[in-house]
Design a protein that fits this description.
Helix content: 25-40%
Largest sheet: 8 strands, mixed
Strand content: 25-35%
Shape: globular
Number of domains: 2
Number of strands: 8
CATH class of the largest domain: Alpha Beta
Radius of gyration: 21 Å
Low-confidence stretches: 1-25
Mean pLDDT: 87
Strand order of the largest sheet: 2-1-3-8-4-7-5-6
CATH architecture of the largest domain: 3-Layer(aba) Sandwich
Oligomer: single chain
Distance between the termini: 68 Å
Number of helices: 7
Amino acid sequence: MLSVTSTASVAFALALSINLTASTAYADHDDGHFIIGYINHPRVNDFYKPIIKRAYEQIGITVTFEKVGGKRGLKLLDEGMTDADVIRYDVVTKDNPNVIAIEPQLSRGASFLLCVKSVVCHADIINDPTAVIAVTTRFFKNVEQQRNKFEANFYEFDDFYHVVELIKTGRFDYAIAPSDFSELNIFDEYGFTHIPLVEHKLVHVINKKHLHLKDKLSEAIAIQLKIHQTRQPNEM
């Protein structure tokens, strides 16, 4: 029979093995294959992922996309567990030292305050202590303010679809969600009043271990954006 010490050693070894195996799914790759994180957002899924995929293919790199959350995705990227993230606000480089932004920008985006029609809606609602607001994670990083700087009551969620659904179904009267302005017609259809609170560049980001690919990626992304503009000039 194993002693307590032996049992503990076996358990530790097993846990370490499981952890290393899980990490390998992210970490063991080279410049021929990238694992790229993405946030579950309609515009990311339908528009930005295909552009980024084609840009990498152009420079001879195959990609696997991994759905990640706002905070978790940046943690994985900053730690080098993923190679890149499809699209982020440019401000993410300020608090993630291992994350590099790739120009040109993919678009411009904003954090939008969404309000149902039956309530008062103005930008300063975030300082109303009676307001309850559903927000996507990293909103406070995007506005570069601490949460306690605002007086409203905030509930954070990691998924764009979930936040929109919460206000659409009446569970919240207010929400804050990111958009590159392409969802404004959807917000209108749902009857939301929408106010941009803060705007930023939207850029592709990579881990700094791939810094040597920055110029190639920049050129490839610029070409893919130009191709898309030529094909569908009204979509950007």
